[in-house]
From TrEMBL, chains A, B:
Source organism (scientific name): Cynoglossus semilaevis (Tongue sole)
Family recorded in the similarity comment: Belongs to the group II decarboxylase family.
Protein name in UniProt: Aromatic-L-amino-acid decarboxylase
Gene Ontology CC annotation, any one: cytoplasm
BP GO annotations: amino acid metabolic process; carboxylic acid metabolic process; catecholamine biosynthetic process; serotonin biosynthetic process
Lineage: Eukaryota, Metazoa, Chordata, Craniata, Vertebrata
Gene Ontology MF, one: pyridoxal phosphate binding
UniProt xrefs under Pfam families: Pyridoxal_deC (PF00282)
EC number: 4.1.1.28
């Protein structure tokens, strides 16, 4: 959507909202639909090609308004996350379908998704341990429970463990910054020998520092053998799996319990961890077997974020989403080539998606000074990371409007500042 | 703002956004402001009288745009929550000010606010216990920790305890559905005698079922004596304290650590519970002593919700907010009089703010049938509760547009359906 169309559609939307308020008293205060009403009103998969804005707005009146905010909010979300699951070619067990045991949920943030999966795993483990030793108190079990994640994992994993009150260990990575099966296995065995209870592993597909991919085909079977819950954090890389050429990076997912973009294999595991049902939250359809998201998350309230997904999936189509991803990857590769052609720089990690990790060869201080200059100029903005103990710059392509000329301009700008940095350091 | 103005302002806002995108490349990618820049650009208190929309939009360009999303988002939030704190006449220790130790934060939901305070209290308690017995593991301490809340408290308090992995006890209430000091004291003493560690009490000002007010003037000193953190959940009633005639309901707040609407007395208690600082989240001003919200909440990301507060506070003014609250209370009292004048009904709890709890005298089944009929007709919508073991209907005034004629019409509707219910039950 270009800016002129945005203005037009935006004004239409303001009128849509105003008309709604103007006529709100003519509408019933409560919807008159049966649980599950929405699924049959829309296709079971995202469109391949883009649809028009008019078509979608017509469907808002036909599909959403009869179910108002609730249950339309829940039901559209369930179907949208099935659409997404199918685009990602997830195994059937992760879909809600009409009678599946899995399903997706939009968590407020990636941090909350990781926390939710950790809490569900904690609950499952406590029950399992108490089944064989009913004398043990919950807290005593907590003090022996050990979670694991990559040393390259996002900080939210460590925070989730702090919140849940369990220990967490960082698993070392190989020279591509990925966790391999044997590294996890070794740690788990040591901890078991010390009387601890390994129960959770958070794998990352697309780490924050360098977009590395943990080897989940190796890690999944180990987790299964050890009664551990494997959670897969694909908060960044997940959307790339709509392209078949990247889908192999997700192989092994069938062994995980929870995929962050955001999906669970067995709903009951989540619900079991949190169900509290006071009278003011009871309703007549609560035993319908349909998805009820209040047990899948920390807050009770929810935003209607699936409405945005519905618009995006239909305005882009599966093909449009693929070209969006491919465009970003192409731009990142373009930047990578520019870096590689300059002998003063080195690439620090394989460029798989939209992230390029690079640095000036030599002492860290050079790259640190370069970063300082770049961010002071405020033409582009970079966030650093550490890889193998060295200071690394991260060039991330993530804006919807980035084009080749931006990449070229950014590189020109960086090389100009590099000149200044190296000149000073030569004195 | 009426609907005609909403249309006009809405279109202007769409153009504002479109213009922003159209010119985004002319703007620096990173703001050039010093930490704390925003506080001096705006008044230190909310205006008494309403301001115009034009004035506010002018300030968006002057105050917000130079600080863009960040740090403007954080800094406006700190100041807006000070504005709110002053309107609520909170003790100085709850304000951020320029060098205070307290301050407010907008949590995603009330559930998250309660969870955050519970986690902070848990962390503080573990440190205290370990200081006198460094051998004890965290999990061993958890298994002895006891939280308390009213039997009338919101379900999110019980969930917070589940998530944090600590026990929770429901404190019985008096005949006004409020917790008194002696009831808590008795429980705490029993638990201490049994070797448990009481550490947290969640008081409620305005319970969900009946809008009851726990006696925090009695409860606060007990919590202080017992080294317990008192959290005050005023998620519903909190906004009423902008009116001096309701402010006395908040007396005793100086003894609490955390007030949900949403405020903490000592930031360090929160930050201590969660600080994880990877390189990609470090920045040069992180030791500035200013508010950094990422440690105050579960998610890392934040929405710019203080912008809405800024608009609301200024468009209404302190006086406008007061009339809004008073209008709702007046309407609830109007409904109460209608119920009291009808001998078939009884009022089940004192009407203090916008909630009226009532029921048909006699067997529960009558009120249950009435509720069923009301919600089937879909003209108005009521949510029930249980008080003293009896089924009770809750009439809540909460829409911005509710007027006296809605109350009259709703009561007419209810009495019509009551006629039908009682007719059937007479057969």
């Amino acid at each position: 959507m270009d800016i002129a169309e945005f203005r037009r559609r935006g004004r239409e939307m303001v009128d849509f909202v105003a008309d709604y308020y103007e006529n709100i008293e003519k509408r019933p205060v409560f919807p008159d639909v049966e649980p599950g009403y929405l699924r049959s009103l829309i296709p079971s998969e995202a469109p391949v090609d883009p649809e028009t804005y008019e078509d979608i707005m017509k469907d808002v009146e036909r599909v959403i308004m009869p179910g108002a905010a609730s249950p339309a909010c829940t039901e559209l979300e369930t179907v949208m996350l099935d659409w997404l699951g199918k685009m990602l070619q997830l195994p059937e067990c992760f879909l809600a379908g009409t009678d599946g045991q899995g399903g997706g949920v939009i968590q407020g943030t990636a941090s909350e998704a990781t926390l939710m999966s950790l809490l569900a795993a904690r609950c499952k483990t406590v029950r399992r341990v108490q089944a064989s030793n009913s004398q043990l108190l919950e807290g005593e079990i907590f003090s022996k429970m050990m979670a694991y994640t990559s040393e390259e994992a996002h900080s939210s994993v460590e925070r989730a463990a702090q919140i849940a009150g369990v220990m967490i260990r960082k698993v070392p990575t190989d020279d591509t910054y990925a966790v391999r099966g044997e590294m996890l296995k070794k740690m788990v065995e040591m901890d078991k020998a010390a009387g601890l209870i390994p129960f959770y592993f958070c794998a990352t597909l697309g780490t924050t520092p360098s977009c590395a991919f943990d080897h989940i085909t190796e890690l999944g079977p180990i987790c299964n053998d050890e009664n551990m819950w494997m959670h897969v954090d694909a908060a960044y890389a997940g959307s790339a799996f709509v392209c078949p050429e990247f889908r192999h990076l997700l192989n092994g997912i069938e062994k995980s319990f929870f995929l962050l973009v955001n999906r669970v294999k067995n709903r009951a595991d989540l619900i079991g961890a949190f169900k509290v049902d006071p009278l003011y939250l009871k309703h007549e359809n609560q035993e319908s077997g349909l998805v009820i998201y209040k047990h899948w998350q920390i807050p009770l309230g929810r935003r209607f974020r699936s409405l945005k997904m519905w618009f995006v999936f239909r305005l882009y189509g599966h093909k449009g989403l693929q070209s969006h991803i491919r465009h970003h990857v192409t731009l990142a590769k373009e930047f990578e080539s520019l870096v590689r052609a300059d002998k003063r720089f080195e690439i620090c990690a394989e460029v798989i998606l939209g992230l390029v990790c690079f640095r000036l060869k030599g002492e860290d201080v050079l790259s640190e000074n370069l970063l300082k200059k770049i961010n002071q100029k405020r033409e582009i903005h970079l966030v650093p990371c550490q890889l193998s103990g060295r200071f690394v710059l991260r060039f991330a392509v993530c804006s919807r409007t980035t084009e080749s000329h931006h990449i070229q301009k950014a590189w020109q700008h960086i090389t100009q500042l590099t000149f200044e940095v190296l000149q000073v350091s030569n004195y």
